[in-house]
């Protein structure tokens, strides 16, 4: 992190010809449990990880915004006087969308000075670790401080979501931004996606000698976007037939009645959401009362539900989960929207090497590409670095 901090300062000075006023950072995230529950207004339990995106920012004496990233040579320039979402595209729609969205949440963009922004990051892009929320969190937090806007972290999460929904055009919920902005060391963010209230839940992984392994299968199917939309539509249809605003309002005890009212596929989609919401609540209670080692069964059950009821797993994810479980993991599940991406496994530190070797072997044996394997620690959310 110190290296990245120094590097982004040096790069900034070289690119823009002046020193930044500061460096801010925001982490990627992993969702421990609670998949596809966000748009059903239910519960999620993500945590911020020890991979971060940095934004070095310096004030200008005009109304220009210039934004660069170490990922690309492109330097994008706009004037604050003609910043519209239609004009934004590509990667710069994330940082510039944040500028626009700050205006939507009360910043007087007609009165603020221009800025130069340089982004650097060690969050893998497109691996399901939300590099997008990390860039949004770093830029929104930096500008909130530089422009003295006084917006709280919850509001900055909504700024990032608005940028992503409107400027980028991705219909995402508030989970990623909340995790990135609100995360704390060795803790998860328990988020109620209806009220948007959040609570910090200590994970206690460090004391328990447990680690979280990410298994990035590197696979992402073409039908992921269509599949996501289809699942969303099924959930809305289920809620409509059951006469509720959202599946959040259906409890496990209501499932018998739901089975009579719904066709088989819709019923199974509904059952995933309803039981997953309950598993998030159970995980929070288990973490508080018994500690992380007791949560494995809930992670395993979450995977089965996504595989069989929601039908969003793929053979690579199933293999990752089963191999981890068979070689010492306490629990494992696919994480993220599905149809590819990553799985996570809760692994005792002394079983880690066995799990890693077994995963390499199993993927080779099945003729799958080697997965990318790395551990993540639950880490502090958005902060000023220097
Ligand atoms: P993820 O799961 O990583 O959030 P997304 O597709 O939501 O995947 O967001 C990734 C996109 O965010 C990238 O394609 C890029 O446009 C933008 N992005 C993320 N990190 C950076 C970065 N460090 N520099 C420039 N753009 C970035
Ligand atoms: Mg994203």
In short:
With 386 residues, this protein is of the alpha+beta class.
How many discrete domains? 2
Mean pLDDT: 97
Instruction: Specify the CATH architecture of the largest domain.
Output: 2-Layer Sandwich
Task: Indicate the proportion of strand residues.
Answer: 15-25%
Number of helices: 12
- Hetero groups: adenosine-5'-diphosphate, magnesium ion
Distance between the first and last residues' Cα: 11 Å
The shape is globular
Which CATH class of the largest domain is shown? Alpha Beta
Classification by helices and strands: alpha+beta
In the sheet with the most strands, the strands line up as 5-4-6-3-1-13
CATH topology of the largest domain: Ribosomal Protein S5, domain 2
* Strand elements, count: 13
Roughly what percent helix? 40-55%
Radius of gyration: 21 Å
**What is the string of helix and strand elements?**
HEEEEEHEHHHEEHEHHHHHEEHEE
The biggest sheet amounts to: 6 strands, mixed
- Low-pLDDT stretches: none
